[in-house]
Amino acid sequence: MNSDTSPAARLADATTRIARAAALRPAPHPVTLIAVTKTRSADEIAPLIAAGHRAYGENRVQEAESKWPALREGHGDIALHLVGQLQSNKADAAVALFDAIHSVDRPSLVTALARAMDKADRRPDCFIQVNIGAEEQKGGCPIADLPALLTQARTAELPVAGLMAVPPASVEAAPYFALLAKLARDHGLAGLSMGMSEDYETAVLIGATHVRIGTALFGPRA
Ligand SMILES: *Cc1c(COP(=O)(O)O)cnc(C)c1O
């Protein structure tokens, strides 16, 4: 990554890298690059929208509510992805604002989202987040709980698009990506939201359909 290039130039570079990795797959499929814009200002994001990029990620409902209604205006085709933990009491707001929710990780949240979707008559795609490294403080459902949570989500008519995970930091991510891909296959799910700035090419090689990239586009967060 060249640190003196613009976010739009870095986006073009990441897009090329993703295409190169995707082409090495036995059966290439499209990969969505989610530009993660948490902590970034409207002025930093606007050039990517002007360059035609249409998939963005935020990790907090409130921050997204303050930035995106204005940024989105006139761009009805922008898709907003929630990539951070969601409190059940913010389910209504999340369903109203986001087109996909990548952090569905517990029964109480499935219940809250199902109620919010029924009320709003709007059904954002849902990814079940798995605590793939069995880390104490991390979000995501334990692997052992995944079958029951999936059954609950499907019964509640959440549109389950796939699985999402954030592997443990500072260790090789590939084995965790491979495990998430296997879990998705076992449960008949096509979507795989995995890979961030440091490891998105590896994730795509292992089958990611959605990569979530912040730092590699905008530089380090403050
Ligand atoms: C912040 C964040 C990202 C992007 O991380 P970078 O390392 O900046 O690319 C991806 N996924 C989640 C869940 C995040 O919170």
Automatic annotation (TrEMBL):
Its cofactor is pyridoxal 5'-phosphate. The modification N6-(pyridoxal phosphate)lysine is found at K38. The keyword Phosphoprotein does not apply. The keyword rRNA-binding does not apply. GO terms for molecular function: pyridoxal phosphate binding. CDD domains: PLPDE_III_YBL036c_like (cd00635). InterPro entries: Ala_racemase_N (IPR001608), PLP-binding_barrel (IPR029066), PyrdxlP_homeostasis (IPR011078). Residues 29-220 form the Alanine racemase N-terminal domain. Coiled coil: none annotated. Pfam families: Ala_racemase_N (PF01168). Keywords: Pyridoxal phosphate. PANTHER family: PROLINE SYNTHETASE CO-TRANSCRIBED BACTERIAL HOMOLOG PROTEIN (PTHR10146), PYRIDOXAL PHOSPHATE HOMEOSTASIS PROTEIN (PTHR10146:SF14). Pyridoxal 5'-phosphate (PLP)-binding protein, which is involved in PLP homeostasis. HAMAP family: PLP_homeostasis (MF_02087). Belongs to the pyridoxal phosphate-binding protein YggS/PROSC family. This is Pyridoxal phosphate homeostasis protein. It comes from Sphingomonas prati.
